[in-house]
Amino acid sequence: MKLRWLPIKGYEQYYLISNLGDIWSIRKAKTLIPVTNKSKYMKVFLSVNGVVKDFKVHRLVANAFIAPPDNNRLVHHIDGNTFNNTIDNLCYVTPKDHHRLHPGMHKKIGKRAISSRVGKKGFHQNPDSEFKVGNKFRFNPGQEHPQSKFKNEDVIMIKYLKKIGKKRSVIANMVGIAPKKIDSILYGYAWKHITI
After folding, report:
1. Which domains does the chain have, with CATH numbers?
2. At 111, is the pLDDT very low, low, confident or very high (cuts 50, 70, 90)?
3. Disulfide engineering: 18 pairs with which of 22, 38, 131, 154, CB 3.0-4.6 Å?
4. Model pTM score
């Protein structure tokens, strides 16, 4: 795919976006490093005259290269990888089509949609995630733990980025977590069952 750059609408004098999902700051003459939000989507912070706003990268790419957004359509990652924000991997779909493409991702309860994997108290309801030892319950390590904030793939990515020489502050920004959490993963205090 040939690299193309277009101005970001509303920020034409300040930022450019590529069809590969990269954002270029014209003022700073550098590529912005996106962070990952809790929904596992990459986002960037754009600022003009001291006003900072955050934008999801896949929406910026679709807005620039496909069509302006409307309230009736969502941007869909065709391969399901929310880190792949290239134009070839994005398309607009209706909310109904999005739910059809991702069955079981959300279910309606009253007027709000919640994840089908989350129980009443916010714990993942997986009957295999706990086992009894004596009179106490113990939980399996990793993503099977009811309070886990990460998936195995996230931890593998963190450990891989460190292995190839990325600094912990860069990893923290890319993944969207505090550097102390990264230290606990890298030095084996947490997630020690995953090795690379």
Report:
1. 5-101 (3.90.75.20), 127-186 (1.10.10)
2. very low
3. 22
4. 0.54
